[in-house]
Design goal:
This protein is of the alpha+beta class. The chain has 4 helices and 8 strands, in the order ββααβββαβαββ.
Length: 176
């Protein structure tokens, strides 16, 4: 599998911009609310710690068969960052699988931003050499379940580290 690199993705209200180290300062403010980590674990990170994390992410996965694709979500009308989306693309039984995740800062939730960003990401993944998309969602996290549903993922009944796995199979489009 060749490395897949993130590209700019545009939706109606959003720009998904490939992650850069210099996003850390703004993103540390976006991700500062401890309530964001209730379902996913962890705590808010300082700008410097986030900067170090972004440096490691941008360096890429240690396994050359795995692609780490990470974006910040820019709300175009406000010209500011409001969250992130990511896809880890790795070999799977029937071809590469993209494991996705999203997070939107508390101040921008309940505005459809996560759904729009995740749809944009999944639409982009449909044009990549992947056979499916997977997300792992805490069983009580209704908002993330709604995002997964909006992107076409369906619960599988399988569990991964205490979270329910959701899946979308991507059928290759026929070429004319």
């Amino acid at each position: 599998m060749s490395t897949i690199r993130p590209q700019v993705i545009r939706t109606e209200r959003l720009g998904l911009v490939p992650l850069r180290v210099d996003h850390a300062a703004e993103m540390s403010n976006v991700l500062a609310d401890p309530e964001l980590y209730g379902f996913i674990g962890g705590t808010p990170l300082s700008a410097q710690t986030l900067r170090s994390r972004y440096e490691r992410i941008i360096a890429g996965a240690p396994d050359p068969a795995v692609s780490w694709c990470n974006w910040v979500v820019r709300l175009l009308a406000e010209a500011r960052l409001v969250g992130t989306v990511q896809a880890t693309i790795a070999p799977g039984e029937h071809g590469p699988i993209a494991e996705i995740a999203w997070i939107v800062g508390t101040a921008w939730q309940r505005r459809g931003i996560a759904k729009e960003a995740a749809r944009g990401l999944v639409d982009w993944l449909r044009r990549q050499p992947v056979s499916g998309v997977v997300a792992h969602i805490h069983p009580d996290h209704r908002a993330s379940a709604a995002v997964a549903t909006a992107t076409g993922l369906k619960p599988t009944g399988q569990w991964h580290n205490g979270e329910l796995s959701w899946r979308l199979t991507i059928t290759p489009s026929a070429t004319p």
